[in-house]
Design a protein that fits this description.
The protein is 42% helix and 15% strand. It is an alpha/beta fold and 262 residues long. The chain has a single domain, classed as 3-Layer(aba) Sandwich (Carbamate kinase). An eight-stranded mixed β-sheet has the order 3-4-2-1-5-7-8-6, sandwiched between helices. InterPro entries: AceGlu_kinase-like_sf, Asp/Glu/Uridylate_kinase, G5K_ProB, Glu/AcGlu_kinase, Glu_5kinase, Glu_5kinase/COase_Synthase, Glutamate_5-kinase_CS.
Length: 262
């Protein structure tokens, strides 16, 4: 099993199920604790890159809607409202620990354009050199696709590659990848995955939305992208943010996807 104690540059992706209550409003206690832990990890000498979801849900709640809208213009409007709210909270919470944040919003067309991609890489490197915490989200307000980055799981893997990260951590609402639906009797956690098989992908498709809107399938896709770039991925339960301490002490319950070796 991988030794996490010496990992330097980490990308932490947090999904809506971790950030928000079922109402769409932020889980303030959990968000505050998560930022406290990330700030402490940064204080220990790690580079922390934070990929967040939740803008649409938070925006819908702040706009007084009872659920996420289905119409694309309303989705984009809610994303704009929610992103402002998220960054306001993140900026305030990180400032409590004397850390400065920067917002980076991405779309696929930016990543696919060579010049723009280089600009993004330069921005990330400069921010990290300056000791800033980059906070990344999909730019849903101008996105031309229904799901530009699949609940940001794919985005987190792309960001990990762009930042030359040592580790991608995806926080979700289960302990990791199971051999079957974790709600079923006898389901077993898979602690280490060296190869993502077609059987795993097929099984993950059956698990549906119980892991929030992205599902486990998009997390496998993210792990595949990261693996191709030589970056290991951890899927871990984010309901208790302190579990990140356990991870870097090599005692966390999770699933580790090993990186491809050169």
């Amino acid at each position: 099993m991988m030794d996490f104690s010496s990992v330097k540059r980490i990308v932490i992706k947090v999904g809506t199920s971790t950030l928000a209550h079922n109402t769409g409003n932020l889980n303030i206690r959990r968000v505050s604790k998560l930022i406290e832990v990330m700030s402490d990890l940064k204080n220990s000498g790690k580079d922390v890159i934070f990929v967040t979801s939740g803008a649409q849900g938070v925006g819908a709640a702040k706009a007084g809607l009872h659920s996420k809208p289905k119409e694309m213009p309303k989705k984009q409007a809610c994303a704009a409202i929610g992103q402002c709210e998220l960054m306001h909270i993140y900026d305030r919470e990180f400032a409590n620990y004397n850390h400065t944040v920067a917002q980076v919003l991405l779309t696929r067309d930016v990543i696919s354009n060579k010049t723009r991609k280089e600009n993004v890489i330069n921005t990330f490197n400069t921010l990290l050199d300056m000791g800033i915490v980059p906070i990344i989200n999909a730019n849903d307000t101008v996105s031309i696709q229904e799901l530009d980055f699949d609940e940001n799981d794919t985005l987190s893997a792309i960001v990990a590659a762009l930042c030359s990260a040592d580790l991608l951590i995806i926080l979700t609402d289960v302990d990791g990848l199971y051999d079957k639906n974790p709600k079923l009797p006898g389901a077993k956690l898979i602690p280490e995955v060296k190869q993502i098989t077609s059987e795993m992908i097929s099984s993950a498709k059956d698990k549906g939305s119980e892991f929030a809107s992205g599902g486990m399938i998009t997390k496998l896709e993210a792990a595949t992208i990261a693996k191709e770039h030589g970056i290991p991925t951890v899927i871990i339960n984010g309901q208790r943010p302190e579990i990140l301490y356990d991870l870097f002490e090599n005692k966390a319950v999770c699933t580790v996807f090993t990186a491809d070796e050169d």
